[in-house]
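Ops channel
N.P.: pipeline sanity check, posting one input/output pair.
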């Protein structure tokens, strides 16, 4: 199952006292599983924007603790700044990064808002996707009148908070109210132009931004702006939904840019915005020379872009993630102004860097992996090697698919083989994940054996932990078997329909897949043999035996196809 990652970007009404800011951010950093990525204080706004990410449960807990601390150390009665504000924690959005939907984030936000109101006695409004009232999707509606209007709003029907409504008291006077919500990820991006003209950059921005440009009399650029019956300007919408954009000149670079906020990356992904700005710039005799990402982006933004540009080239998308990201970087000119380093700009990569363990087997070189296996420690062992054999089998099947996709004369079949390669990459990722999980399963058994056994309660807890860990250690290689079994279909398809010059590689992939299934099966059986729950043990071994028999059959079938193809290529004496 794909890991769920969300981002939280709370805005606190303190931008001048670093000690107070640190007290708040320390609360976030203490929560295990949360990566604190950025702290951005502003003196004029008297406001600090904090960015942290992680899985939903720890992020929500960190957000709650930060709100609690902010309510203790910030006194809204003394607060004045340039930015609109209503509370010590003014706004608190949850943002889906990967593996989770905006709707799920909205439910998390509502639950968090109620908890803040119930446990901290801070009134809360829900906005954007979490809004409980349609008009409150707009943050400005929730924050109308700011802190100064809160006393009246607390008890006014239709304006009271969604949670924690009560007359103004000393606690509310100090903390104010908090607006909690869920919104999609916002991408701030600048498109570099081969011009110094702000006017032309603005013209391109007006072409594409959702708001568009004002209608003018006679359709002229310099005509009088037209208005509707209520006196509002009539607009000609731009071509990109969910975007805001302007043109400006940057002294530092000596160029003009179209500066854009993409507020709905589902409707307008980054690569779509890039292509459309290129098109509108070209219509005005201008070229987009590159793209500048401001802040952080989710990995899916670059993956989607890389796949998009590969598909435009009729190239296989079933290649390693790193290669897909490289295609995105080069296609959109992300290194035009300065080197673009994904490990510094992509949220998931920053998280991996923050939590990376040098002992992870999947991070070792081939030589290091072999040396680690050869040592006198029992792990990594056969189950880990079985998972890696399965990954190699999937890699070989994927290689044949990619070679076939790019074979001369087979251009009309690129999509067929690209789909096979995509499946192969997915299997390979799952099996590489099982490489480390199998060793972790063994380590869990060792930890259970190391539990105390002084008292009868200790012994009972230790015995239960050993049995649970042993069952897990049998289930992990069973998942390796089930995943590696899917490699046969890929290798069979490539042996039958792929590039015949690579048919032997499909055969070796099948051999590796069989080794994975049989090897993992042996690990299922040896761990199941130690289970006291004999019914569970029988279920595990029965399924393992079935998959092992099936692997034998599928391997023989694929090798027969391979031998037949090789024989057909062999010249007759």
């Amino acid at each position: 199952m794909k890991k769920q990652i969300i981002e939280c970007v709370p805005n606190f009404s303190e931008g001048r006292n670093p000690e107070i800011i640190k007290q708040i951010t320390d609360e976030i950093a203490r929560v295990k599983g949360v990566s604190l990525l950025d702290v951005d204080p502003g003196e004029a706004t008297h406001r600090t924007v904090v960015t942290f990410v992680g899985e939903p449960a720890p992020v929500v807990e960190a957000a709650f603790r930060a709100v609690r601390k902010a309510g203790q150390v910030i006194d809204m009665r003394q607060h004045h700044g340039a930015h609109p504000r209503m509370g010590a924690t003014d706004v608190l959005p949850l943002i889906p990064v990967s593996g989770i939907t905006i709707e799920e984030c909205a439910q998390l936000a509502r639950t968090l808002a109620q908890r803040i109101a119930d446990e901290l006695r801070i009134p809360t409004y829900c906005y954007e996707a979490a809004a409980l009232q349609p008009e409150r999707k707009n943050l400005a509606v929730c924050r109308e009148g700011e802190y100064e209007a809160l006393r009246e709003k607390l008890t006014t029907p239709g304006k009271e908070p969604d949670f924690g409504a009560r007359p103004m008291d000393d606690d509310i006077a100090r903390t104010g109210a908090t607006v909690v919500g869920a919104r999609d990820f916002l991408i701030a991006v600048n498109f570099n132009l081969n011009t110094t003209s702000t006017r032309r950059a603005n013209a391109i921005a007006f072409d594409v931004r959702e708001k568009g440009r004002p209608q003018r009399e006679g359709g002229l650029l310099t005509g009088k702006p037209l208005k509707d019956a209520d006196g509002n300007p009539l607009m000609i919408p731009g071509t990109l939904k969910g975007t805001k954009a302007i043109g400006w000149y940057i002294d530092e670079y000596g160029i003009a840019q179209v500066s854009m906020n993409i507020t709905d990356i589902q409707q307008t992904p980054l690569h779509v915005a890039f292509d459309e700005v290129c098109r509108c710039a070209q219509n005005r005799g201008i070229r987009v020379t590159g793209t500048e990402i401001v802040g952080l982006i989710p990995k899916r933004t670059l993956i989607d872009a890389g796949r998009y540009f590969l598909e435009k080239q009729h190239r296989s998308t079933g290649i390693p993630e790193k290669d897909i990201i490289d295609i995105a970087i080069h296609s959109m000119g992300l290194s035009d102004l300065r080197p673009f380093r994904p490990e510094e700009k992509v949220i998931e990569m920053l998280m991996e860097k923050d939590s990376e363990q040098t002992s992870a087997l999947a991070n070792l070189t081939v030589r290091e992996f072999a040396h680690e296996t050869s040592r006198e420690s029992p792990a990594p062992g056969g189950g880990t090697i079985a998972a890696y054999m399965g990954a190699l089998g999937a890699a070989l099947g994927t290689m044949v698919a990619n070679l076939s996709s790019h074979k001369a004369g087979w251009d009309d079949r690129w999509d067929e083989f690209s789909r096979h390669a995509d499946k192969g990459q997915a299997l390979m990722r799952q099996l590489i994940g099982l490489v480390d999980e199998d060793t972790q399963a063994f380590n869990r058994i060792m930890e259970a054996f190391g539990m105390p056994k002084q008292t009868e309660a200790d012994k009972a807890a230790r015995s239960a932990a050993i049995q649970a860990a042993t069952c897990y250690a049998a289930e992990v290689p069973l998942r390796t078997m089930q995943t590696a079994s899917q490699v046969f279909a890929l290798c069979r398809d490539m042996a039958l329909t792929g590039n015949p010059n690579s048919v032997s590689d499909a055969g070796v992939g099948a051999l590796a897949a069989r080794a994975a299934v049989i090897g993992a099966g042996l690990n299922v059986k040896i761990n199941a043999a130690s289970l006291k729950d004999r019914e569970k043990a029988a279920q595990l071994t029965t399924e393992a035996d079935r998959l092992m028999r099936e692997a034998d059959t599928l391997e023989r079938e694929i090798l027969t196809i391979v031998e037949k193809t090789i024989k057909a290529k062999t010249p007759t004496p």
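N.P.: looks fine end to end. The longest helix spans residues 414-449.
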